Amino acid sequence: MNNFNKMNKLFSLIFVVFSVVFSAAGQKFGFINSQEILTSLPEVKQANSDIEVMKTMFQKKGEEMVKDLQTKYGDLQKKQTSGELAPVEIEKQAALLKLEEAKLGEFEKTSQQKIYEKSEELLKPIQDKVNNAIKDVAAENGFLYIFDSGIGVVLYADPAADATKLVKAKLGVVK
Description:
- There is one protein chain.
- By secondary structure, this protein is mainly alpha-helical.
- It has a single domain (22-170), classed as Protein Binding, DinI Protein, Chain A (2-Layer Sandwich).
- The chain is built from five helices and two strands.
- The protein has a two-stranded parallel sheet.
- The longest helix is centred in the middle third of the chain and has 55 residues, at 87-141.
């Protein structure tokens, strides 16, 4: 009886696997290369350029702050070495420099956050536009699923199932 139950479970499992395979056989699948699509869009190039400008601006400002802080530390060290300042005054100025150092760290943190937010602001509408084009292409061409080969999801695909050109055409990008 125990062997009968095991065989029954095995046959049930085999039946489920074959059912899934055969039911999927009639379905239409497609794939796209999202990286190719995104890099072909002029608005992505513009958004990336705007983000780079912002990164450069923050980087220059940060470098200026670091340079200024280094100069102040150097000046304090010279004053300490020459005996120009009393130990109490050196401690006060060192504490102020530590506060500036903390501000620099906060600047770096908020800069990264602002760059992230700007990226989201600029790229989200583009991603939505591409996703809508993919959905439209899927509906118009009867694709049940569209996979993304640009991120390594598809291990093999018949080139005839490549919907990248259809999506690019839907977006008005011709290459």
